[in-house]
Specification:
It contains 10 helices and 21 strands. The protein is of the alpha/beta class. A 7-stranded mixed beta sheet has the order 1-20-21-19-12-11-13. Helix 3 links the parallel strand 6 and strand 7 (74-77). The two termini are 22 Å apart.
């Protein structure tokens, strides 16, 4: 039997969700993009916002197909677009750019240091649309910009929990404050597994169905243990006891033992928890004296690996 938790705030310990945007100015200044970009026209539009990691080429729009222009996407002009424009007479070129003027565009990037048509510069001045030029070829420019924008614009949330790498799997440990999440994680580290983050986990959605988790940079690879304070896992156990990020495979939700509650005793029930539209399996694990939670989490990871292997056979 499958059950999906619909209330993310209550069930998942959700703290906040961030909607990112990237300004055109950021494309020009960030060293992470590794593109040689320059502003040719439209400096007044450098604060325009890019909201989508998808990149478009202006060829169809110049040919008159206008329904697919998205104002929040970077538009690229390459050799094929400029060759098409050179094949038009002056009236047809003017008509093509007049059609473009009716649609807001966050920015236009011309690749390969190609010569920019005067009509495109006029379009930039009229609509406060920055025109940038890259010295790289089109395929390199597209790949670098798409990779950078996907990382920057991917949906993110921060949740309360602990993330570990157990047998190569990303395992989230959830539960109320004081239930023993950090103590469980510490025992798993002593068993040879890796800590990704304690207390706060930043989840990022990639594509349609993949979540990755990592910790914040303020107290990276630190853990709070009541009675001991904040300890540095990397200093105590070495770099092999920590990791930077991890794909999320399943979650374990700790809860205090309730003698009146019914718990799954046959392993037939399967529940899911939803983050950013991605469902991951979750196991409800009651905490009580005499139950070694770390060992049970380790066994849960082995069972997950076994199910995955059988599903692929």
């Amino acid at each position: 039997m499958e059950r999906t938790l619909s209330n993310e705030h209550d069930a998942a310990g959700l703290t906040n969700e961030r909607v990112e945007t990237v300004s055109v100015q950021e494309l020009l200044t960030t060293p992470l993009l590794d593109l040689n970009l320059e502003v040719v026209e439209g400096k007044e539009g450098l604060q325009n916002e890019i909201r989508s990691p998808l990149i478009q080429k202006l060829g169809l729009a110049l040919a008159g197909v206008m329904g697919f222009i998205h104002p929040d996407r970077v538009q690229v002009v390459g050799g094929s677009e400029l060759s098409y424009l050179r094949g038009l007479d002056s009236a047809e070129r003017a008509a093509a750019f007049d059609r473009l003027k009716k649609h807001p565009i966050c920015c236009i990037v011309v690749v390969k240091d190609l010569e920019i048509p005067l009509e495109l510069l006029d379009l930039s001045s009229a609509g406060k649309t920055p025109v940038l030029r890259s010295s790289d070829i089109g395929s390199v420019t597209l790949a670098k910009m798409a990779s950078y924008l996907e990382k920057r614009l991917a949906p993110q949330i921060t949740i309360h929990g602990v993330l570990l790498q157990i047998f190569g799997l990303g395992v989230l440990i959830l539960g109320p404050s004081g239930i023993g999440k950090s103590e469980c994680a510490l025992e798993l580290i002593l068993k040879g597994h890796r800590l990704i983050s304690d207390d706060y986990v930043e989840l990022t959605k990639h594509g349609m169905d993949r979540l990755t988790g990592e910790g914040g940079k303020t107290l990276e690879h630190h853990m709070e243990l009541r009675g001991l304070g904040i300890i540095n896992i990397k200093e105590l156990f070495g770099i092999s006891a920590t990791g930077a990020s991890q794909n999320i495979d399943f979650a374990v939700r700790l809860e205090r033992w309730n003698p009146e509650a019914e718990y799954d005793r046959l392993g037939l029930d399967q529940s899911f928890i939803n983050y950013l539209g991605v469902s991951i399996p979750v196991i409800d694990m009651p905490v009580a004296p005499g139950r070694n939670i770390a060992t049970l989490v380790e066994v849960a990871a082995r069972l997950h690996l076994l199910r995955r292997k059988k599903n692929h056979e």
